[in-house]
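Standup notes
- DV: blocked on the single-chain target, sequence here:
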Amino acid sequence: MELSGLVRALRAEGPRAGEQPPPRAVPPAEQILPRIALLVSEGAAPEVVRDLGALVEAAGCRWLFGGLSPATLGELVAALNGYAAPPKQEQDAAGLPREDRAYAAAAERAAEVGSVFLHLLAKLEAAKTQESLGVPVVGPILSRVMGPIYIFAATHIVERPWANTKSQSAAQEVLALLVQAVGCGSVAEFLRGKDEDEEGRFAAVMGLLKQELTKDTWKRNPATKHVFSWTLLHITRPWLSHYLERVLPPSLLISDDYQEENKILGVHCLHHIVLNVPAADLCQFNRAQVVYHALYNHLYSREAPLIQAVLLCLLDLVPILERAQRQQNRGRPTAPCDEVLQLVLTHMEAEHRLALRRVYARALPAFVQRLGILIVRHLKRLERVILGYLEVCDGPEEEARLGILETLQCTIEHAWPRMPCRLPVLLKALLKMIWDVHTDQGPTPELVKAALLQGATECLILLDRCSEGQVKVLLEGVYSSCEETRVRECIRKVQENT
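- DV (later): unblocked, structure below
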């Protein structure tokens, strides 16, 4: 019997279809659905999927689930998920293929498959209330189908080249209904469980993704890395530590790719792991050291977004490594934070690209705070960087200069005994910057100029305190000879500070 005819026959049963056996002319679902799964896996025409949606909608719960093994329905759902997946690409492809038509077709297929899944989940929800079916039947079926259905939803729920408004909407509805069907209140609860003692569905999802997250396969399906990262971000402390062995290798694999987009995605995954896995688990089997070396190698990159992601991750990883070294009494001549800062300062000295200068300058204060008094190990190079960055305007927002002023403040606060000998060069650089900001006729907003002048003034006040008033003495002549109101205001604040 053709699908359209089967749909008509099931619809003819009306409301009785869920209560009485279907007529003998209608073959059992155990015979029909495997054939449909075969057609779908072979790339069936869209009409087949649409007819399947109509079939599921028209069928009664008893016909659909009564004599059907969970494995059969699981194979059908897996075939539908594969049918809706974006087109495969070569493992060594430089990026997503420019196949707009192929991706548009994938989005259309996803919308049709989403409709089938919505009908199926609705039938499973209805079957729970039928005495002859209920949870004993629905439970095993849900266990079989929830993994592929979740992967379908995660593939199409976010804006991607292979998704459109219709497929995204369908994916959102499918995911919401799936979470409801298993009795959870959120996607995170669906994946991790309601409490730490309850096992969620993350292991089942990762079991399906595992075969696509190997070195030879992870780039063939362009959606795999996004499904993995989107899923990973829903698993937080304390649940994530249970799955560390499953999530760390794929994250390292993605971050080790030659494409910047993949590197950044992998680093974001690693950062999430660092933040949500206990330090003891990270340090076991030298895992934290492996992550550190993977991140450190990225510091030689010339791409600002990647450097920013790496520095943020290292700032959270370095304390874990150093704490482990202290506990193991394995002191090192150079701690990880020193290694990172030394390389960053080396790159900062010669860097001329404004985007990278801004990223470095924004991250620098956190490293100074992290080292504390130990920043004295890097003062010579840090001083050269500060002087060089104070001289250069980096655009309307002045992010680099503002970051360097904050760095200088932190440095003075932590290494104040070493500041008096550096007073002449620092004072000269700060005064020059104040004058440059005052005379700037560019597009820099007044609020940004005010922030720069305020930061420079605070640095002068700190220098004055650690030099026992020498700055006030040196500024007396400048104040008396300067006629510019804004510059005089900065000097006055320093002189009046006690």
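- Follow-up: Residues 100-127 form the longest helix (28 residues).
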